[in-house]
Automatic annotation (TrEMBL):
One of its GO terms (biological process) is 'de novo' IMP biosynthetic process. Keywords: 4Fe-4S, Glutamine amidotransferase, Glycosyltransferase, Iron, Iron-sulfur, Magnesium, Metal-binding, Purine biosynthesis, Transferase. It is an enzyme of class 2 (transferase). It comes from Helicovermis profundi. It comes from the Bacteria. Binds 1 [4Fe-4S] cluster per subunit. Pfam families: GATase_7 (PF13537), Pribosyltran (PF00156). This is Amidophosphoribosyltransferase. It catalyses: 5-phospho-beta-D-ribosylamine + L-glutamate + diphosphate = 5-phospho-alpha-D-ribose 1-diphosphate + L-glutamine + H2O.
Length: 470
C-alpha cells in the first residue's frame, strides 16, 4: 500500500520556457531560472527539454550549480524546457524521485514538474496500481503524469484537465506535452506560478525572481484553477475550475519566497516590512536596538525599527554557505546547524536591550539557540518578536511543517514558549495583522497553519485525522 499523503512534504520550485525556434541556450536559461529558485528546494534538481518530438532530461541530487555544467547543458537543446528544484522531508531522497518526471506513453513523452503536495495521491495511486499501472517513484507527482498518459487518446488538453480535476491538494505544474508548454495552478492557487514574455517566447516560474535573471518580462500570475497552453500560436487560457475561492499560501510571504519576488501583485519584501511595522504597533517594547534573524527576518526587522524609532542594527552574522536549518533531519543536528549558521556580533550587542525579529517559530529550536547565544555574548535583554502568528497546524500543501506534536505553537502557551526560548518577552503578529501586511483579502489567502481552516478536507488515515492526534 502506498501512503504518500501523510509523509511527503515537498517544497519545490518550477520553471518552464517556450521558444518558437530551437534555442541552443534554452537549458542554460532554465538553469539560470533554477538558480534563482534554489531557495525553494536544495535536495535535487533537473531539466527536461523537448526537441522535435523527443524529450531529453538530466536530473541529480544536489544543488543546481553542482548538478549542471557546460557539458550537460550543451546536450539539452530544443525549444521547450522545464526545470525543477526539490526538497522533501522524507527519507526517500534519491534521484528517481527527482523531477522533472519524464514518462513515455503510447502517444509520446510527457515531462512534468510539480510544486505542492497532493492529498489524494495515495488513494488514486492504489486504484491505478490495482488496475495494473506500474510506478517508478514514490512521489505524488507521478500520479499526475500517469493520469495524463492514461487518457491521451482524448487529446492532451482534455487528458490534462481530466487529471487535474481528479487530483486534490496544492499544485503548480509545468508540463511538456506534445510540442507545447503547459502551466497549471490548482483550484485554490495555493502555490504560486507566474507568466512572463521572453523574446518571441514565454516563461513560467514559481517566482518572478526567476524572470529577472533570465531577462524575461513579467506578464501576470496564472489564476487559481487556470491552465495555460503555450505554443506557436501564443498563450491560450482555460479556466478548468472557477468555483473555488483562492487561497494563496501565507507562508510564501512570511518565509518561503524570495523578498525580490512579486506574488499575486504583492512584493514579498514590502509585505514583510509591513509585517514588521504592524508587529511594532501590536507589541511595542523599550529597547536599544532591533536586530534580525538573517535573512528572512531582515525586512520585518527594518519595518519594526522604522515604526518604533528604535535603531536597526546587525547582531547576527550568517554563514552564507549553509542551507536552511530545516534541512537537518533530527533535532540534535538542527541545533548544531543553528550554531554553524549564525554567530553573534558581540561588540554590537553587548550591554544592550535587543528586539530580535524572526519570521516564524516552528519547533522553537532556532529562537531558543539564538536567545542563549545573544545572552552569552552579553545582551542585557532579548525581546523576541515574530512576524507570523503561532504556527499551530501542520501544512498539507507543500510547506514543511512537522507534525502537530512538534509545533511549539500547538502545544504551549505564549508564556510557556517565552520561557522555553529564554526571552525576556515574546510577541507574535496577529493573524489580522499578517493579512493586513500582505494587503490581500483574508478570504484569498490560506491561513490554515495558524487557524486550522484548511481550504479543503485534509487527509485521514483510516477514519482518523492524522493531525488531530497530538
Ligand atoms: P524552529 O522554530 O527552530 O523550528 O525554526 C524556525 C526557523 O526556521 C525560522 O527562523 C524560519 O526562518 C525557518 N523556517 C520556517 N519555516 C520553514 C520551512 N518551512 N522550511 C525551512 N525553514 C523554515
Amino acid at each position: 500500500m502506498y501512503h504518500s499523503d501523510d509523509k511527503l512534504k515537498e517544497e519545490c520550485g518550477v520553471v518552464g520556457i517556450y521558444d518558437p525556434q530551437k534555442n541552443d541556450k534554452i537549458s542554460t536559461l532554465t538553469y539560470f531560472g533554477l538558480i534563482a529558485l534554489q531557495h525553494r528546494g536544495q535536495e535535487s534538481a533537473g531539466i527536461a527539454v523537448y526537441d522535435e518530438g523527443n524529450v531529453k532530461y538530466y536530473k541529480e541530487m544536489g544543488l543546481v550549480q553542482e548538478i549542471f555544467n557546460a557539458k550537460n547543458l550543451e546536450l539539452l537543446k530544443g525549444n521547450i524546457s522545464i526545470g525543477h528544484v526539490r526538497y522533501s522531508t522524507t527519507g526517500e531522497s534519491y534521484v528517481t524521485n527527482a523531477q522533472p518526471l519524464v514518462v513515455r506513453y503510447r502517444g509520446g513523452s510527457i515531462a512534468l514538474a510539480h510544486n505542492g503536495n497532493l492529498i489524494n495521491a495515495g488513494k488514486i495511486r492504489n486504484e491505478l496500481e490495482d488496475n495494473g499501472s506500474i510506478f517508478q517513484t514514490s512521489i505524488d507527482s507521478e500520479v499526475i503524469a500517469n493520469l495524463i498518459a492514461r487518457n491521451y487518446k482524448r487529446g492532451f488538453e482534455e487528458s490534462i484537465i481530466n487529471a487535474v480535476t481528479e487530483i486534490e491538494g496544492a499544485f503548480a505544474l509545468t508540463i511538456i506535452c506534445e510540442d507545447k508548454l503547459v502551466g497549471v495552478r490548482d483550484p485554490y492557487g495555493l502555490r504560486p506560478l507566474s507568466l512572463a514574455k521572453l523574446g518571441d517566447g514565454y516563461v513560467l516560474a514559481s517566482e518572478t525572481s526567476a524572470f529577472d535573471v533570465m531577462g524575461a518580462k513579467y506578464i501576470r500570475d496564472i489564476r487559481a484553477g487556470e491552465m495555460v497552453i503555450i505554443d506557436e500560436d501564443g498563450v491560450k487560457s482555460y479556466m478548468y475550475s472557477s468555483e473555488k475561492k483562492q487561497a494563496l499560501c501565507c507562508f510564501e510571504y512570511v518565509y518561503f519566497a524570495r523578498p525580490d519576488s512579486v506574488m499575486d501583485g504583492k512584493n514579498v519584501y514590502s509585505t514583510r516590512q509591513n509585517a514588521g511595522k504592524i508587529l511594532a504597533k501590536e507589541h511595542p517594547v523599550e529597547a536599544d536596538m532591533v536586530i534580525a534573524v538573517p535573512d528572512s527576518g531582515i525586512a520585518a526587522a527594518i519595518g519594526y525599527a522604522e515604526e518604533s524609532g528604535i535603531p536597526y542594527g546587525v547582531g547576527l552574522i550568517k554563514n552564507k554557505y549553509l542551507g536552511r536549518s530545516f534541512i537537518q533531519p533530527d533535532q540534535k543536528s538542527r541545533e548544531l546547524a543553528v550554531k554553524l549558521k549564525l554567530n553573534v556580533l558581540s561588540d554590537s550587542i553587548k550591554g544592550k536591550r535587543l528586539v530580535l525579529i524572526d519570521d516564524s517559530i516552528v519547533r522553537g529550536t532556532t529562537s531558543g539557540r539564538i536567545v542563549s547565544m545573544l545572552k552569552e555574548a552579553g545582551a542585557k535583554e532579548v525581546h523576541v518578536r515574530v512576524s507570523s502568528p503561532p504556527v499551530k497546524f501542520s501544512c498539507y500543501f507543500g510547506i514543511d511543517t512537522p507534525s502537530r506534536k512538534q509545533l511549539v505553537g500547538a502545544i504551549k502557551t505564549i508564556d510557556e514558549i517565552r520561557d522555553m526560548i529564554g526571552a525576556d518577552s515574546l510577541g507574535y503578529i496577529s493573524i489580522d495583522g499578517l493579512v493586513e501586511s500582505i494587503g490581500k483579502n483574508a478570504d484569498s489567502l490560506c491561513t490554515a497553519c495558524f487557524k486550522g481552516n484548511y481550504p479543503m478536507e485534509v487527509p485521514k488515515l483510516g477514519n482518523k485525522y492524522v493531525f488531530e492526534k497530538i
